[in-house]
Amino acid sequence: MAKKKSENKGKGYWGRVMNVDLTERKVTLEDVDDSVYSQVLSGAGLGARILWDRMKPGADPMGPDNILGLTTGVLTDTPSLFTGRFTVVGKSPATGGWGDSNCGGYFAPFLKRCGVDAVFFSGMADSPVYLSMDGEKAELLDASELWGQDIVTTEKMLKDKHGKRIQVASIGMAGEKRSYMAGIANDGGRMAARAGLGGVMGAKNLKAVVAAGKMRVGVEDKALMQELTRAYRARLDKLSFAQRFLNDRLLGMTGLITRLLPMYPRQPADLWRLLLRKFGTPCLTAMGSEGGDSPIKNWSGAGVTDFPLKRAQRIGAESITRFERKKYGCFSCPIRCGGIMKVDQGPYRLEETHKPEYESICSFGALLLNDDLYSIFKLNDMCNRAGIDTISTGGTVAFAIECFENGILTEKDTGGLKLSWGHSESIMKLTEKIISREGIGDTLADGVKKAAAAIGAGAEKYAVHCGGIEAPMHDPKLDPGYGISYYLDPSPGRHTISSMTYLEIQNLEKKFSRAVPPGFYSTNKSKYDPHGKAEAIATGTFFKTLVDAAGVCLFGTQAGGGMPLPEWLNAAMGWDLTPDEYLAAGERIEQYRHAFNVREGINAQRDFKPHPRIWGGEPLDRGPHKGRVLDMDTMARSFYRVMNWDWDTGRPEKEYLLRLGLTDLARAMHP
Fold first, then answer.
1. Calpha distance 37→54 (Å, rounded)
2. pLDDT digits (tens, 9 = 90+) for 602-653
3. HSE-up (13 A, CA, CB side) for residue 118
4. CATH number of 356's domain
5. Which residues pair with 326 in a beta bridge?
6. Residues 647 and 516 in one domain
7. Count of structural domains, the chain
8. 88 against 271, higher pLDDT
9. Boundary residue ending a domain (211, 229, 260)
10. DSSP 242
């Protein structure tokens, strides 16, 4: 690697990235001009800008021309809270367009301590390698002994070799086998899971990245940052006594009552914080099934009839947390919503494993009508170790079960497996086949869209996806805001972008002048009126891209207390920008992400429309969403107008891009 003197810039960012050419096995450092950071910050913004500038249109996502980036935020490793996130960027094999995925854990600060804001990989190694970087040097080393190992074993082997203080981001067997559902993991089970970027890493023969940096990035006003953080932490500690009163039955009844009410009270962020502290995201399991948030039976059923509260409680928060041995929290997190479990009962004993998140519990639970808690623990652990997305895997298993139920797949196709709803043993065996690409698992390993095309015979009817990515475990028929994000985000099928629920608990109207108070959907009529939602959802989208550029956790923005995000950014970088000016940075990042797709010939309204079951195109005949159909066309047209995108071409308007200062996009979109 080219030598370069380490320099603490004192601005929350280094102004430097690492470029790794895997084909030539060459590592170089590159300075990035301050103007890039002032335009899009770091993290997801830096990744979007670099890929826009360097990626060739039409590049094969699994080929050497795809660029894979691991990026850290401006606030990473500064005296702020909830800043342990990193963002992976690249071209997605699942959609053929923009791909990014976000992850917590402890890898992000150690990567940034290597004196760079991001590392970008191009080319393709001719044999398995991993990158070892410690801030003074970086080198590509042989990974042949690591190839074939799961991510837990990989981390252990690398820590045995390089020391316990290192952090590792790696792929498992799914990534090695180039699954479109593979992710990139650290800390034995925290994963950047969506968009198939673990498969991209596997295609490059890159097994892992070892980060052992020791340099600490400076900030402009450390005392102010510490003061802001102390005050914010104190606000987060209020009402802690109320945690003791929370339980699954109460949560299930809350879902039921909310479903029956003609008015929708604003959701309190303080309650969400207390639930996260006590249970983590499994708190949503019983409430989601009972209230209509959770998709049931491959999006064809209803919790109240097909997976009622008694069954949901078997895999709910209290059932899960009985096995929690200690709390787990990502770097700089004061809530610690994760957990380390020991499953010492049942047929699948696990000495140590991460607590499954709600998305994993639902995708292997209610979506499959499976209430076998022990199998869900085991399935979650299998997917963590293999480095594969639990949402996509559960959705793919659901697709296969329904194909089997309707005679499209037979025992001959499945290798003797009799697939049926709620049959945990066959679910586990099919998941093993998907991970190993064995038999029918090879067909299913790239997700439902590609599998349906290969299987034929009408299988696409049961392939529930958004532009090639399996749908998350939140039903837009309960929160139509999710429908816009699933459909029109440049990396579709995302539950972590923007929704009405998020707008409620983020209180954005208190920070940004263009944010719309969420009282606009307090009744059933206003909630499902397709008009007037786009501006609010767009503001939430810009805020989320800003959050990813800062390196902040989405949950932190929802936990109450009024996160001082713009104030932290000003203190770190020595700027004096208003909240609205920071929101504009998020808006620019969103336009880079979208323009990437337009350049690839993708128009979201045409190419990413979700499966009809998601929005009610196949109306349910029972449950809280009986007969409900979302007007997706009106919602999409409204969103395009707010985003200044042409409906027919997807191109952003030239004058709009120039107002944002995006002259490069304006030239490319309007030559």
1. 17
2. 999 999 999 999 999 999 999 999 999 999 999 999 999 999 999 999 999 9
3. 34
4. 1.10.569.10
5. 340
6. yes
7. 3
8. 88
9. 211
10. G
Question: How many Cα atoms are found within 13 Å in the side-chain-facing hemisphere of 273?
Answer: 26
Give, to the nearest 10 degrees, the angle between helix 424-436 and helix 373-386: 0
Nearest CA-CA partner of 470 in 97, 194, 173, 191 = 194
| Residues whose CB is less than 8 angstroms from the CB of residue 227 and which lie 6 or more positions away in sequence, other chains included | none
Render the burial of 290-324: b for 16+ CB within 10 Å, e for the rest. Answer: bbbbbbbbbbbbbbbebbebebbbbbbbbbbbebb
Strand partners, 29: 18
Q: Looking at residue 470, what DSSP letter applies?
A: E
Residue 266 has pLDDT above 70, yes or no: no
Whether residues 87 and 206 share a domain: the answer is yes
Q: 201-220 burial by CB neighbour count: b if 16+ within 10 A, else e? A: bbbbbbbbbbbbbebebbbb
Indicate if 172 and 310 belong to the same structural domain.
no
252: Cβ–Cβ under 8 A, 6 or more apart, which residues?
286, 287, 289, 290, 309, 312, 313, 316
The three-point CA angle 541-545-549 to 5° equals 165
Tokens 């198939």 belong to 196
Phi, psi of 202 (to 5 degrees): -65, -40
Contact 399, 419 (CB under 8 A): no
CA distances from 45 to 477, 548, 585, 620, 628 (A): 31, 8, 8, 40, 37
Strands 68-72 and 138-142: unpaired
pLDDT in tens, 546-561: 999 999 999 999 999 8
Q: Residue 228: inside a domain, yes or no?
A: no
∠ Cα 184 189 190 (to 5°)? 65
Between 313 and 519, the higher pLDDT residue: 313
In angstroms, rounded to a whole number, what is the distance separating the alpha carbons of residues 399 and 406?
A: 11
Q: Map 174-237 to HEC letters.
A: HHHCCCCCECEEECCCEEECHHHHHHHHHHCCEEEEEECCCCCCCCCCHHHHHHHHHHHHHHHC
Q: Does 529 score more than 90 pLDDT?
A: no
Distance CA 22, CA 29 (A): 15
Which residues have C-beta within 8 Å of that of residue 144, sequence separation ≥ 6? 127, 128
Cα dihedral sign, 346-377-349-383: positive
What single letter denotes the amino acid at residue 552?
Answer: V
Distance of CA 137 to the CA centre of its chain: 31
Query: Residue 402 in contact with residue 298, Cβ under 8 Å?
Result: yes
Question: Considering the chain, what is the average pLDDT of its residues?
Answer: 94
DSSP-assigned beta bridge partners for residue 87: 71, 102
Specify the pLDDT at position 532: 81
Residue 232 lies in a domain: no
CA–CA dist 218, 256 (Å, integer): 49
Residue ranges making up the domain that contains 528: 480-669
203: Cα within 13 Å, side-chain hemisphere: 26
